[in-house]
Amino acid sequence: MNDFDALLAQVIAEARALHIPVSGRIEAHVAVNRRAVTRFGCCRRTAGGYRIELAEGLLRAAEPACRQTLAHEILHTCPGCRDHGPLWRSYAERMNSAWGYRIARTGARDELGVEPPRPAPHLVVCRQCGRRFERFRASALVQHPERYRCRCGGTLHRVS
What we know:
By secondary structure, the chain is an alpha+beta fold.
């Protein structure tokens, strides 16, 4: 089991060492969201600053996955970084280069090594590289995989 609070303090220190302007008003305690199914973390604005939440599934994940998710979320506390715009991406790249993270707008369960809380009812697979896209809802990707491409450029098809 991971100590999210200690990891949060370490990741904040890493960002500040790179002169990334993370907020000084991040709550020291990381909340565990027991209902989150499709996201790993969340940065919530509070009256006093920011609260970071992590999905319960990360309790059983490897420390690097937790650190990377915390790093992603603390970048949202920087001025002008509430979304995944150019400034947020530039800070993410700095963290990636300096600390070996792979912070991106989204993360896949298989990349982070996080087991799903329940099996996903929908599966789309890349015909070229075999990458799996598990979905809990019948999204546009599930309904029309032919409209999308994998990162590798391969075509997608629905398996279930």
